[in-house]
Structure formats: structure tokens, C-alpha cells
Amino acid sequence: MALTDHLREVRARLFRSALVLVAAFIAALFFYDQLLNVVAAPYRDAVSTLQGENSELVANGISAGLMLQLKLCGVAAIVVSAPYWLYQIWAFIVPGLHAHEKKWSRVVAAIAGPLFFAGVALGYYILPKGLSVLIAFVPDDVQNLVDFGAYFSFVTRMLLIFGVAMEIPFFVILLNLAGIVSGKALGRYRPWIVIGTFVFAAVATPSTDPFSMLMLAIPLLILFIIAEIVARLVDRSRGRGQNSTDQWSDDEASPI
């Protein structure tokens, strides 16, 4: 295709994606109360588990309610319409790929999406526990007024962190398939991967309690172990065992 044809295709796909996004946004406006309850539920659950804590969600400012509605419905529209606009991106790129690249792009789409949403679901599940720990730091004689807009941004960032974190081991497998990382190298640096996973979980989780950290770190470690097993199987099928620079010699012991 000529460059102008590519530009016309991009314009057409962007226009269709924008129409679907606007339609999803309008539909989200009719379900605003339900969306608001879904977002506020972790906070209410956290407050209900605490005794004597005076904490409330508030909207500060005349336009705060309108901005909150636009932001919440906008995020919901992006999430709901994601399958369509992601397909438009994929449909534009895939004609230029080779046959084996098309196959792997389907594998990436089939695995990366469910992993991301599994991470988001896990983050939503442990969010009340993390919020309860943070709210507990407020003194008993002090009323804690939390701006709903700031709270929504906090929830969005945390869920995004959990969703992206679940993708990391999958991309490790992709690096192995590309020949960049070997299974032997993953085994050699496994102790550092374990330490790095717990450090990442401690920084990424919304609270300082060990429960939230473990709920992120343990699934990540399991996925990393699966990634290492898959990488070793791929290396063996490709015959890297004899020629890989990461191969342990017969008298060299693994650090694990």
C-alpha cells in the first residue's frame, strides 16, 4: 500500500474507535451510580472493618461532582471499548507481519489480556485490606475527609500496577522466545528475582501490611517459576543446551 493509503486506513480506524469510545462513554453515563458504588465499595469495606474510625469520602469544589463523573465514565468507556480499539491496532499492524509473527501476536493477545485483568481483579480484592491499614493511621479524635477524585486516582494507579505486574513474567517468556534471555540465566539469577519481586511488591502495594505485599509477590513468583520452566523447555527444544553461554558446566553448582 502507498503511504497515503496507510494514512487513510489509520484515519478510518481512529474514527471508528473514537465513535465506539464516545458510545461507550454515553452508555457509562446511564450506569454512573453503579460505577460509583463499584469504586467506593473497597473504601466502605475498609471503614466498616475499623472500629471508631471517622472517615468519609467527599467531593471538594463546585465542579468536583461533574469532573468525577466525567473521569469515572471516561475510564469505564476506555476499559469497556478496549477490545474494539485494541483490535483496530492489531488489524492495522498484522498485515505487515510474517506468518509466524501473526501466530505469536495471537498468542500474546490471548494470554496478555487475561493476565492483566487477573491482576486488576487481585488488586481490587486486596484493596480494602490496604485501605484499612492506611486509614488506621488517622488518630481517633481526627475526622478523615478523603477527596473522591484523589481516591479514584489512587485506586486506578493501584489496579494498573497490579495488572501490569502480572504481565512481567509473560514478557520474560517472550524475551526467551526472541533469544535474549535463556532458561539457565533465569535459574542463575533466581535469588535476585525473588528479592526483586518482594521489593517491587512492597513498593507497589497500597499499604505497608505484609498481607497486601504477599498477595502480589506470591502470584508473581509462581508466574516467574512457570516462565523459567517454559524458557528451559524452549531452550531444550531449540538445542541450546550444548551451545548456550549460560550452560552450567558439569562441576559448576547452581546457586539454588
Word description of this protein:
Helices cover 73% and strands 3% of the residues. By secondary structure, it is mainly alpha-helical. It has a two-stranded parallel ribbon with strand order 1-2. The C terminus is likely disordered. The chain is built from 10 helices and 2 strands.
Can you give keywords for this protein?
two-stranded parallel sheet; mainly alpha; 256 residues; disordered C terminus; 10 helices
Structure at a glance:
The chain is mainly α and 256 residues long. The protein has helices at residues 3-30, 32-48, 64-80, 82-93, 99-135, 148-165, 168-177, 183-188, 190-204, 210-237; strands at residues 55-58, 144-147.
